[in-house]
Design brief:
alpha/beta, about 35% helix, L-2-Hydroxyisocaproate Dehydrogenase, Chain A, domain 2, Rossmann fold, six-stranded parallel sheet, six-stranded mixed sheet
Length: about 425
Amino acid sequence: MNKKLFYYELQNKILIANKKYPFEDVSEDFASSYEGSLFALNSLDPKKSRRSFCVTNPQNLFIKEENLDLLKDNSTENINLPDWVMEHINNRNITSVNTSYPSWKEVLSSGFPIVTKGNENSNKWHITVVGLGDVGGTLITGLRLLGGDCISRINIFDKDENKMKRWEYECNQILSPSFEQSYPVVVPIKEDDLFNCDMFVFCVSVGVPEVGKEDVDVRLAQFQGNSKIISYYSKLSRINNFKGIFAVVSDPVDLLCKTVFDESNKDSSDTYDFNGLSPEQIRGYGLGVMNARASYYASQNKEHIHFLKNGRVFGPHGEGLIVADSIENYNDEISNYLTDKTKKANLEVRSIGFKPYVAPALSSGSLSLISTIKGDWHYSATFLGGAFMGCRNRLTSSGIELETHNFIPDSLFNNLQKTYNNLL
């Protein structure tokens, strides 16, 4: 017997639920004939659950809580659903919506992400990058060179006006001699225009230890200063009713993402009202370079080379990182070796007298941001049950889709759980 479902029509969209809601009922025949996207209704604690996400298997159609188990593909477990609902799930055509968020109906009317600033008749995005230091400057260079097919404009902002002038000159003078390639224009802006974009990228960083002073976790050393600055922009995003993506590139991305969520969702009395950024709007970009570093070290040993095809990385950009040499054929010894080498890679650059910012700005920054815009698989930290957990994911028209695995070895999952618990 099929699982008992209720069907509703709201804002000309079809909703599916496993309990009664005060909306207009429709028949299953009517619902099954609808050709657009469907929405599954849930009601979960907004502090620990996303406002919306892409449903990938029957088990997360009506979840009771968000946790690390969402990385597991349990689609083979027996849950009786109508064939037409299963077809929508398999086609990634159902969005789970959390009705505990005051703004949940926005997902029905606008979808996610809400892209509004691109050129008319174009799906190219407008990007705002704040902070034009080593990372920010390198990142916008990468976006200028590589993002022409998906980005039309890069807004830049820094408290130092000379930095804005410098990068406007430098980046807009990057041009192919053939003149055939399109490039996003780089435009200095005022603070009032920061959130007039589809993606806001935070690259401000203070408290970075000098080269030779690495006796502390470099990324955690930055948290105190960076959290104060990002809190300001978080509240500003709320004031501006920002509907795009708030991307965090500064360290530590996972903890700063949580700060953004908390600070944007409090009212003037410091009480949570969840009228700020939804969790899925906030993403941390620090894991891309860890995958690149693990790949670099794996490529140096033929016994580790399989990582390039089968390996995965999870967790933070630093302490708590987990490198898995393979999911299906997980090897603890190889994985631990690659994890250790990857975590210490930045120290190797510092040991020869340089700050390690080029690879992070491009691998975690430019390339991963472009992959996000295009809907490609990439590494970033995304909200999962109250923490921002780094994993492979992609942005679809139905919301964020996490990469799931049919089988995760117990030893690997236990390590993932430890990292996840530390991020909560």
